Amino acid sequence: MPILSSENFDYWKSRIKAIMRSADVEIWNSCVNGYKCPTKKVDNKEVYKSDSELSGSEKAELQANNRALDILFGAVDENEHQKIANCEIAKEAWDILVTCHEGTDVVKQSKLQRLTTEFETIRMEEEETFNEFYSKLISIVNRCETLGEPIQSFRVIKKILRSLPERFKTKVIMLEGKRKLKEKTVEEVVGILQTFEADMLHSESHKPKTKLLEKTIAFSSSQRENRDSGSDNDTSDETLALLTKNLKRLFKQKSTENMNTKGKGMKGPPLGPKCYECHGYGHLAHECANKLKKSTNFKANLSWDDDSNSDTSVQELEEKGNFMAFVTSLCSQTSDSESSDDSDEDDGVDLKDSKVLREKYD
């Protein structure tokens, strides 16, 4: 037996109705329509009949009223019982409980407006299951019906289809495209959507690592882009450092060969022809970088990248050629004063070396 509280009147009302009608339909009729005690005339006055004076049908009506009143007394707690304790007619007790929990007609209209607003604005959230959403929706529908304003089934179906999230879009389009949608009941549509959700969840359960994999790929790609963008800033300095390192190694080897030719520990003018273009040694004027930089072929060979179709301007090529000639001359002069000791010198060069050479050139 359900017990009435301040929050479950709609549920309690439907349960009491079912209980009374299952016991005897006359019990429910007595609760709703009321019971009128039989009377008789005594000295031209209406008086109530005693129980012994009741006919068979009158006794049946009285019994139905008494059973209805007993069910109501047994379905309320002590606080609610105080409201109907003095009632002898089941309808009187019923009306008191309905008025206390549903209110008067004005209160009913106010509640109906609120429920109608809830019905129009309710939506299924992304984290909700369909069963959770439908439970909230059908509760609103039932309360409207309890207040005497039932909502048509087709309106409920359309509300369900409009309130579903994006993952139900394909099934909604399929249902709305059917011509016999009006012939379907709410329960049939609910069953179709529950099956669709169950199949969808089953499919997703077999792909638990998909989102994690997508995030990993995106993170790796982001790291790669950051690394590439950071390396572009150092390209020019690294290229200059590499060129300086190679030139320094080359002229160091030249100096060592000259010293070995002259003899260990001996000093003197460097061997090899003298260049009258840059006044250096070890090459002729037609091989000098100062002269070669003036030719078109030399400008093409001074490209700072591997692209043969580079758009480097003539002014930039001439500037790089001047710098190369300067490095060649400087290294040639430096080789004249280097000692021939056997200690190993690190031939590595860093960005600082390239900047020093650039400052000397400028």
Automatic annotation (TrEMBL):
Residues 338-348 have a biased composition (Acidic residues). The keyword Metal-binding applies. InterPro entries: Znf_CCHC (IPR001878), Znf_CCHC_sf (IPR036875). Residues 218-237, 333-362 are annotated as: Disordered. Residues 274-288 form the CCHC-type domain. Residues 349-362 have a biased composition (Basic and acidic residues). The keyword Glycosyltransferase does not apply. GO terms for molecular function: nucleic acid binding; zinc ion binding. Keywords: Metal-binding, Zinc, Zinc-finger. This is CCHC-type domain-containing protein. It comes from Rhododendron griersonianum.
